[in-house]
UniProtKB/TrEMBL annotation:
<comment type="function">
    <text>Acts on leucine, isoleucine and valine.</text>
</comment>
<keyword id="KW-0028">Amino-acid biosynthesis</keyword>
<comment type="similarity">
    <text>Belongs to the class-IV pyridoxal-phosphate-dependent aminotransferase family.</text>
</comment>
<dbReference type="InterPro" id="IPR050571">
    <property type="entry name" value="Class-IV_PLP-Dep_Aminotrnsfr"/>
</dbReference>
<dbReference type="GO" id="GO:0005829">
    <property type="term" value="C:cytosol"/>
</dbReference>
<keyword id="KW-0808">Transferase</keyword>
<keyword id="KW-0032">Aminotransferase</keyword>
<dbReference type="Pfam" id="PF01063">
    <property type="entry name" value="Aminotran_4"/>
</dbReference>
<keyword id="KW-0100">Branched-chain amino acid biosynthesis</keyword>
<protein>
    <recommendedName>
        <fullName>Probable branched-chain-amino-acid aminotransferase</fullName>
        <ecNumber>2.6.1.42</ecNumber>
    </recommendedName>
</protein>
<keyword id="KW-0663">Pyridoxal phosphate</keyword>
<dbReference type="InterPro" id="IPR001544">
    <property type="entry name" value="Aminotrans_IV"/>
</dbReference>
<dbReference type="InterPro" id="IPR043132">
    <property type="entry name" value="BCAT-like_C"/>
</dbReference>
<comment type="pathway">
    <text>Amino-acid biosynthesis; L-leucine biosynthesis; L-leucine from 3-methyl-2-oxobutanoate: step 4/4.</text>
</comment>
<dbReference type="InterPro" id="IPR036038">
    <property type="entry name" value="Aminotransferase-like"/>
</dbReference>
<dbReference type="GO" id="GO:0008652">
    <property type="term" value="P:amino acid biosynthetic process"/>
</dbReference>
<dbReference type="GO" id="GO:0004084">
    <property type="term" value="F:branched-chain-amino-acid transaminase activity"/>
</dbReference>
Amino acid sequence: MSRYAYVNGSYIHHEEASVHIEDRGFQFGDSIYEVVYLHKGRLIDQDPHLDRMERSLGEIGMEMPMSRAAMKLIIQEMVRKNRLKTGLVYIQVTRGSSTRDFPFPKTYRPTVVMTARRMPVFDPKKALKAIKVKSVEDIRWGRCDIKTTQLLAAAFSKQIALDDGFDDAWMVDQEGFVTEGTSNNAWIVTKEGKLKTRKADHDILNGITRQCIIRLAKNKGMEISEEAFTIEEALNAKEAFVTSASACLKPVTQINDQTVGNGEVGLISSEIAQLYADFLEG
């Protein structure tokens, strides 16, 4: 089946889609993106994702390129044209193309790109395959709360982890605290059963799935603390896991060369995964 992409008002065969060679998203990473998960035909947390996109654009001096209603129509058409039932819709907005120079152009026409791809349905009974993470220095810029396409530092960190036989990296700040994974938020479950994840500030992306799980867990009566933790704390924790729109939830059973807890997928991680799966079903 042919895949379709959306580029500046046109639906194009995926392999033929392109942007101008001087697009600032291509040359400077001067762009914002979002990824919305589609579960059995239902777009999950679409408005929170678009809210975050609008905020990120505002933080770099841009506005939404079209009305919320118009963007939703295009997203829905991308789902239809790609015959997507479960998968991801990727949205990117750049500051458009102009003669290459560092200052922002005084006038510009934003570039809007969307792609879509299939994914398997999240099933907590099948998807909870544990991962191993490697701790690395966080070398990213100081505004990680903005969902920019400047992802080289994260990609570099993940490649270091993969080259060393791990599945992902947990980035650590100069004070020794974990910020987040390369494309996900980091969590631990303390020995007392309390959930801990870093406070949403400039050092991390405030994940939409993160926000959803905080809400679901609180409704279930679980204790949650939004505060930073160290690698040592994580190794002494009962459980650890990561969350994101694309992966939903993945347990972490090894950090560097040490196991977390008993080295198995924990009961609380499994319970939260089931809570999220129930939420996806509506």
